[in-house]
Amino acid sequence: MTADSLVATLRQAVGDSHVLTDDDLRAGYETDWLNKYHGTARCVVRPGTVDEVVAVVKACAAADASIVPQGGNTGLVGGSVPRGGEVVLRTRRLDRLDPVDLRALQVTVGAGVTIEALQQHARAAGLDFAVDWGARASATVGGAVSTNAGGSRVVRFGTMRAQVMGLQAVLADGSVVTHLSGLPKETAGPQLHHLFIGSEGTLGIVTAARLRLVPWYRQTAAALVACESVADAVSLLPALRSLPSLDAVELLMPEALHVACEYLGISPPLHDDFAGAFVMVDCAAHTDPTADLAGVVGDRRGVMALGPQRDQLYRIRDHVTIAIGAKGVPVKLDVAVPVDRLDELLQRVRAVVAPIDGAELIVFGHLAEGNVHINVLGALDHAAAFTDAVLQTAIDLGGTISAEHGIGVAKVHWMERLKGPASMHAMAAVKQALDPQELLNPGVLHCLR
Questions:
Q1: Which of 39, 229, 259, 322 lies in the 20 to 30 Å Cα band around 54?
Q2: CATH number of the domain that 238 lies in?
Q3: What are phi and psi of 335, to 5 degrees?
């Protein structure tokens, strides 16, 4: 099948207006939101139903045209942009929002629904969706499933994997796997839908998900606490974990707090020139958790935040990445280690950054999971050596090279070092069984060729 005939077939499947071939129309789909990863798509196709996804996949398979699935395109590792001539399959039109099942505390939604829209839909029924992070207005359910996204509330509710009760996905041959019953107990063999969670679109294209919902806690309280060091911040965790209302424990190194406040044009909510780290704690319950949180924070230097003050704390946290991007293109890494090794990790990272003239290290993350986002501005010329040093350090400390952002194309060559040859062989066998043509997101997560 020629390129022109493939485009004609795709237009017949989804409609002329949803197949983009013009350079200007494709441009927004061909780069990531940090403007770091770029590529050229053969075309961009925007199916609106699972049947249209099937038709697109079958047409691409017949033309031997690879597919890059793309949701909100908020990824940071190059996994949702084309690398060279693939068809970009944009899922945003897969936006079904079924009624909330109040008896099961579940809902079925399309892969293109944004996290923010899902949260609003759940809250209209008096419930909530647990996974949350700053890109909620753009990030989609399908992308969150495909990367096993986490965010700030993992300490209470777990990652996206813990929310998924079932999935619908289109395989590379156009067949459809549907498991949307949401049964909380089933022992009829392995649950196939778990394969697609964290597979970054390499095993199938997620088109819908059955998701767990949680109570909507409307009474909230937050605190920003100054700590002497990262080790001191970690020492807070046992007391914080004793709070039934604990919803998030975020780590903001001083540079992260200041860069976000500077970007927003506001003063830092807590001035402490001697702080080595700041911990942002959020609690949520059906009754006011302020007293409980204040009891745990105790005499530590900090600020309690209620109402608009709490909203400002989250505004600061949500804008750290945006603020960094406004200053330049950073070397950006997302790693996690056991929490008792977190201080050692950051000490080693500082030692790697120190010799780089003009480099600016900005770190923030999720304290309870030992997950930090490491950003270095002014170090692009040293990106490869810096990345190697930090990722190897994370592995040496018993951690992982990716806790939230996925592997994409950025870290694919590190997978065997992290997982080991036996695990990689098993992953390759699954990929070969489900996608022998390597049609789906080639070069991402797996490095088979």
A1: 39
A2: 3.30.70.2190
A3: -130, 165
Q: Let me know if residue 140 belongs to a domain.
A: yes
CA distance 1 to 60: 9
Residue after which a domain boundary falls, among 90, 115, 147: 90
**Do 44 and 82 share a structural domain?**
yes
Secondary structure element (H or E) that encloses residue 118, with its range: helix 115-124
pTM of the model: 0.92
**DSSP string computed for 186-204:** --SS--GGGGGTTSTTSS-
How large a percentage of the chain has pLDDT more than 90? 86
332 and 376 together in one domain: yes
Question: What distance in Å separates the CA atoms of residue 221 and residue 284, rounded to the nearest whole number?
Answer: 7
Tell me if 238 is assigned to some domain: yes
Question: CA 424, 429, 434, 435: dihedral to nearest 10 degrees?
Answer: 70
Per-residue pLDDT, averaged over 383-410, amounts to: 94
* Residue 52: predicted pLDDT: 98
Assess whether pLDDT exceeds 80 at residue 369.
yes
Determine the longest span between alpha carbons in the chain, in angstroms: 71
Contact indicator for 259, 320 with CB cutoff of 8 Å: yes
Residue (of 294, 275, 273, 272) closest to 283 by Cα position: 294
The answer to whether position 440 is within a domain reads: no
Burial of 315 (0-12, 13-18, 19+ CB in 10 A): middle
Based on the fold, state whether residues 83 and 16 are members of the same structural domain.
yes
Choose the final residue of a domain: 185, 215, 245. 215
Residue 205: strand pairing partners: 170
Residues 6+ positions from 108 with CB-CB distance below 8 Å: 96, 98, 180, 182, 208, 209, 210, 211
pLDDT band at 434 (very low <50, low <70, confident <90, very high): very high
In-domain check, residue 423:
no
Could you give the number of structural domains in the chain?
4
Q: Are strands 371-377 and 331-336 parallel, antiparallel or unpaired?
A: antiparallel
Is the pLDDT at 246 greater than 90? The verdict is yes
